[in-house]
Design brief:
alpha/beta, TIM Barrel, 2 domains, eight-stranded parallel barrel, 14 strands, about 45% helix, binds D-xylulose, binds cobalt (II) ion
Length: about 450
C-alpha cells in the first residue's frame, strides 16, 4: 500500500467556506455557495470547478524576460519522483481546502519528463498510482487529462501535424500514455489543445496534408481510448495563435467545421477558454454560443485577458459583466456537456505568497457564482428573454413561419416583398439590453 505524505504546505489556512457577502474574512467565499440551488442544480453541479495543475503547482512566474519568482516548498527534493509526490501532496491539500471537486493535468505537470519514452512511462505509472491513492483518500476527481505535446523541442514543427513521421509517432506514444493515465485515474474527459498544430509560414507548410494527419491522429486516439473503456468526451480547445503564428483549431467555428468534416463530431466537443476567445477577436459569450448551437459546449477554461495587450495573460476572472453575459449563454444552453469550469489561470509574477493562489481561486469562483445568480435573475424575472424573442416575432406566423419551414422559394419571397408595405424602422434596443445586465448585477 502507498503511504501518501502528511506534510502541510499551506499552513495556517483551513477549509474555505461560504460565509456570504457580509463576511470580511478574505479566506471565505462571498457568493460561491456549493450547495445553493440555481435553476434546479447546485452551484457545485453547475460549475464542477477544477484546479489546473500546471499553473498552480508547476508554473513559478517565469516570463520571456526573467525566471520564476515563486518558490514552492514541494520542489526541493533532488529526486524527481519524490518531487512529484510532494507536489501531488500540495495539490490535493490545496484542492481539498478550496472545497473543489476536480483537477486537470498535463502528463508533464505530474512528474518531470525523462530522456526516454520508457523512463517516462515508468514515472507516469508510478505517480499515477500515488495520485490514485490520494484520490481515494479525498473526494477529488479528475475533470480531464491531457498531454503536453508543445513544450518539448521535439515538437517545434508540430506534434500530430509534424512533417516528420517519426515525431508524429512520438506524439502518438505520449498521447497513448496520457490516455492510459487519464483512464486509470477515472478521468471524465480528455483534452486536445494543439499549441504546435499550425504553422509559422505557409511557404514551407502543406496545410491540407497536415489537417488530414491531425484528423487521422485524433481518430486513432479516439479508437484507442474507446477500446480501453473510456466513456467520457474528448474536447478540442480552440486557440487562434500563440505559440504558433496560426493554429489549426483557430476558434469554435473552425474546430466544429473540422470535426464535422472528418466525422469526429459524435465523440468530440469543445473546451472554450476566455482568453483564447478574445485572442481570436471574439467575446467569450460568442464562442460559448457557437459551441452551444452545435450541441458541443463541453467545458470551460476560465480566465481573462488584458484589455490593453493582445496576448494570453491567463489572469483569474474578475469581470462580472463579461461573465454574466457568458452565464446567460451557459444557463440557456442547459450547462456543460460533461465538462466543468477549470481555472486555467495564473497569479501574477509578483504575487509571491503561497496564500495568493487561494485569493485567486476564491475570486474566480465568486465571480462565476455571482454572475450565475445574476443571469438566473435576468432569465427568470426580467423582460430580457421576451425582448429578445420579440425581435423575431415576424417568424412566428404567416410567411415568416413558412420561410423558416423551408416552404418558400426565392420567387415566392420576392413576390411577398413586391406586395407588402415597406419595412418599418425597428430599434435593436442594445442599450436597454445592456442596462438589464447592470440592473441585476
Ligand atoms: C494554453 C492552454 C493549455 C490548455 C491545455 O493556452 O490553455 O493550458 O488548456 O493544454
Ligand atoms: Co486552456
Amino acid at each position: 500500500m502507498i503511504i501518501t505524505g502528511n506534510k502541510e504546505y499551506y499552513k495556517g489556512i483551513g477549509a474555505i467556506n461560504y460565509e456570504g457577502k457580509e463576511s470580511d474574512n478574505p479566506f471565505s467565499f462571498k457568493f460561491y455557495n456549493p450547495k445553493q440551488l440555481v435553476m434546479g442544480k447546485t452551484m457545485a453541479e453547475h460549475f464542477k470547478f477544477a484546479v489546473a495543475y500546471w499553473h498552480s503547482f508547476c508554473g513559478q512566474g517565469g516570463d520571456p524576460f526573467g525566471p520564476g519568482t515563486q518558490q514552492f516548498p514541494w520542489d526541493n527534493s533532488p529526486d524527481p519522483m519524490q518531487r512529484a509526490r510532494d507536489k501531488a501532496d500540495a495539490a490535493f491539500e490545496f484542492i481539498t481546502k478550496m472545497g473543489f471537486d476536480y483537477f486537470c493535468f498535463h502528463d508533464v505537470d505530474l512528474v518531470d519528463e525523462a530522456d526516454s519514452l520508457s523512463e517516462n512511462e515508468k514515472r507516469l505509472h508510478e505517480i499515477g498510482e500515488y495520485i490514485a491513492q490520494k484520490k481515494k483518500e479525498s473526494s477529488v476527481k479528475l475533470l480531464w487529462g491531457t498531454a503536453n505535446c508543445f513544450s518539448n523541442p521535439v515538437y517545434m514543427n508540430g506534434a500530430a501535424t509534424n512533417p516528420d513521421f517519426k515525431v508524429v509517432a512520438r506524439a502518438g506514444a505520449q498521447i497513448k500514455m496520457a490516455l492510459d493515465l487519464t483512464i486509470a485515474l477515472g478521468g471524465e474527459n480528455y483534452v486536445f489543445w494543439g499549441g504546435r498544430e499550425g504553422y509559422m509560414s505557409l511557404l514551407n507548410t502543406d496545410m491540407g496534408r497536415e489537417l488530414d494527419h491531425m484528423a487521422q491522429f485524433l481518430t486513432m486516439a479516439r479508437d484507442y481510448a474507446r477500446s480501453n473503456g473510456f466513456r467520457g468526451s474528448f474536447f478540442i480547445e480552440p486557440k487562434p495563435m500563440e505559440p504558433m503564428k496560426h493554429q489549426y483549431d483557430f476558434d469554435a467555428a473552425t474546430a466544429i467545421g473540422f470535426l464535422r468534416e472528418y466525422g469526429l463530431d459524435q465523440d468530440f466537443k469543445l473546451n472554450i477558454e476566455v482568453n483564447h476567445a478574445t485572442l481570436a477577436q471574439h467575446s467569450f459569450e460568442h464562442e460559448l454560443t457557437v459551441a452551444a448551437n452545435a450541441g458541443m459546449l463541453g467545458s470551460i477554461d476560465a480566465n481573462r485577458g488584458d484589455n490593453q495587450n493582445g496576448w494570453d495573460t491567463d489572469q483569474f476572472p474578475v469581470n462580472l459583466y463579461e461573465v454574466t453575459e457568458a452565464m446567460l449563454v451557459f444557463l440557456q444552453a442547459g450547462g456543460l456537456k460533461g465538462g466543468g469550469v477549470n481555472f486555467d489561470a495564473k497569479i501574477r509574477r509578483n504575487s509571491t505568497d503561497l496564500e495568493d493562489i487561494f485569493h485567486a481561486h476564491i475570486g474566480g469562483a465568486d465571480t462565476f457564482a455571482r454572475a450565475l445568480l445574476t443571469a438566473e435573475k435576468i432569465l427568470t424575472s426580467s423582460e430580457y428573454s421576451s425582448l429578445k424573442k420579440d425581435r423575431y416575432v415576424s417568424f412566428e406566423s404567416g410567411n415568416g413561419k413558412e420561410f423558416e419551414k423551408g416552404s418558400l422559394t426565392l420567387e415566392a419571397l420576392s413576390k411577398i416583398a413586391f406586395n407588402q408595405s415597406p419595412p418599418k424602422r425597428v430599434s435593436g434596443k442594445q442599450e436597454l439590453f445592456e442596462n438589464i445586465i447592470n440592473q441585476f448585477i
